[in-house]
Design a protein that fits this description.
single chain, 537 residues, 10-stranded mixed beta sheet, 11 helices, 25% strand, binds alpha-L-arabinofuranose
């Protein structure tokens, strides 16, 4: 689609008013921070794991996106694409989920160990989605040792999804023992050592299946709960595990609350899992327009549907609380992102790769603000997926590699990782927008805040296609903001993205803000994501 066409259509279709806007004020939105007693460590710590990752044996994710092989002319470290390692390190990628996704429930870990030339070629679940004439045969060149090497090189914590759908409890337990038992104890541990595992991998995070209601076994929650118990009861406990049970398809029309009820009802009287997986895709697959082609209605549709994740988190958390008021089980949102109709793949066999634009960056900012504000409920979140699939930070093909606008939002939100959540009052009005199903209301401003020692970070997203917003952030308790600075991600063209040809089209830039006494004032441009950092004295 022609970009000028978008702008014309956009202005006509998006009739935006700030609902309830009163008489002219110095700011369109005043954000009141609630710093609490910082010396007493108020505020939940925002786990770095909320900014987590996911890679699957699917299309061009592992093979090419991550693994290029040791003999490749593409710069690599032990066969892993160097640029991927460097950029993941740069954003402090805290964890990495692998090997799927749907692939996990057909994966047998033994196929991916031992001499690479002796590893078998096996069936890949995603073959069914491959275009005619293309082959997804799994070569097993990337197995658990290569995955752990990648995690070590990035500094990421591994999160491994086990095969429940077509595997057995004993296959799972053997894998855990192979990874975690010290050499000289079990024969499995010696085998791991012979294959190069000098020290036990010490993997804590284990997913017990994936989407067990769908590709992971088409089970009912009661059936899955029974299997879950079988899979975890004899778990070889060398490392304190963090076990994640399969949770709902959160983007279903009804939020799939029935899965949560059914699972926890069936778990009454048994040890609850540490984590409960929630998948939430902003699912535009039924819309004919591809990732890089949209009008105003699709822009707002993505943001409206994306914002639904907040209610889905709250609803499932409340449901879980009915069975466990102490909330021993936390949410693990281990797949999230915007999923478009096929058609913008970087190559036919790179299925599910999408054109990523500023729209996806704005969606990411809003999603992270929601995660930050609900940090006490969420143990981990993993974008689907880090490279060459759905909501990617990177696109890679052969010697070509690019960081998408989504990458820059991960970079922008880094100050929140491991910082303490700061509650904020956000009285910004809702705005009226025209989305696919007609008129709707969208919060006119997304925000979240955190403190690390005396350093404040506030992130703000303005989803409007037409209207800049004057924002004032009020610092309470007689404190002052000093040395404030702003960093912004925006572009005059909302269709803009980064391509192999123009890798720097959408990038971070400095943004002027004014800090004086107890407030910070700024102009938040339309369709932008902004980080405000200040020293609080
Ligand atoms: O991320 C792509 C797929 O989406 C995953 O394999 C599956 O878990 C989900 O349906």
């Amino acid at each position: 689609m022609d970009r000028r066409t978008f702008l014309k259509t956009g202005t006509a279709a998006a009739v935006i008013t700030l609902a309830g806007r009163g008489p002219a004020r110095a700011a369109d939105a005043e954000i009141e921070l609630s710093l609490g007693d910082l010396s007493a460590g108020a505020g939940t710590v925002i786990s770095p794991h909320l900014y987590g990752h996911f890679i699957e044996h699917l299309g061009g994710v592992i093979y090419d996106g991550v693994w290029v092989g040791g003999n490749s002319s593409i710069p690599n470290v032990n066969g892993i694409r160097k640029q991927f390692i460097d950029d993941m390190k740069r954003i402090g990628a805290p964890n990495l989920r692998w090997p799927g996704g749907c692939f996990a429930d057909g994966y047998h870990w033994r196929d991916g160990i031992g001499r690479s030339s002796s590893r078998p070629r096996t069936y890949n679940f995603w073959q069914r989605r491959m275009p005619a004439g293309t082959d997804a045969t799994e070569t097993n060149q990337f197995g658990i040792h290569e995955f752990m090497d990648l995690c070590h090189q990035i500094g990421a914590v591994p999160y491994v999804a086990a095969n429940v759908g077509s595997g057995t409890p004993s296959e799972f337990h053997d894998w855990v023992a192979y990874c975690n038992a010290p050499a000289g104890t079990l024969s499995l541990a010696d085998e791991g050592a012979a294959n190069g595992e000098k020290q036990p991998f010490g993997i804590s995070y284990w997913g017990v299946g994936n989407e067990s209601w769908g590709c992971g076994g088409t089970m009912r929650p009661q059936e899955y709960a029974t299997l879950y118990r079988k899979f975890v009861t004899q778990f070889p406990s060398y490392v304190e595990p963090f076990l994640v049970a399969t949770g709902p398809r959160g983007h279903s029309a009804d939020g799939d609350i029935g899965w949560t009820t059914g699972f926890f009802e069936s778990m009454r009287g048994f040890d609850p899992p540490n984590g409960f997986s929630l998948h939430f895709y902003t699912d535009l697959r039924q819309n004919p327009l591809k990732g890089g082609e949209f009008k105003a209605a699709e822009w707002y549709e993505v943001l409206l549907r994306g914002a639904r994740i907040e209610k889905v988190i709250e609803d499932h958390w409340a449901e879980m609380g009915k069975f466990d008021s102490a909330h021993r089980t936390k949410l693990v949102i281990d797949e999230w992102g915007v999923w478009y109709a096929p058609g913008s793949e970087i190559a036919p066999a790179y299925i599910l790769s999408e054109t990523i634009t500023l729209r996806d960056a704005v969606h990411t900012g809003m999603t992270f603000d929601i995660f930050n504000r609900h940090a006490e409920k969420i143990a981990m979140a993993n974008v689907a997926q880090s490279v060459n699939c759905i909501h990617s930070l990177f696109l890679a093909k052969g010697d070509k590699f690019v960081r998408t606008p989504v990458y820059h939002v991960f970079d922008l939100y880094r100050p929140h990782m491991g910082a303490r959540q700061v509650a904020l009052g956000n009285p910004a009005q809702e705005m009226n927008v025209s989305a696919l199903a007609g008129p709707a209301k969208l919060p006119a401003l997304s925000a979240s805040a955190s403190m690390r020692e005396r350093r404040l970070a506030v992130t703000l997203t303005n989803p409007s296609l037409d209207t800049d917003m004057a924002v004032r952030i009020r610092i309470p308790n007689g404190a002052n903001a000093k040395e404030a600075r702003g960093t912004i991600l925006t572009h005059h063209d909302v269709l803009a993205g980064n391509s192999f040809r123009d890798p720097e089209e959408v990038r971070l830039a400095a943004h002027a803000i004014r800090a004086g006494g107890d407030s910070i004032s700024l102009n938040l441009p339309k369709h932008s994501v902004l980080l405000v950092e200040a020293e609080i004295g």
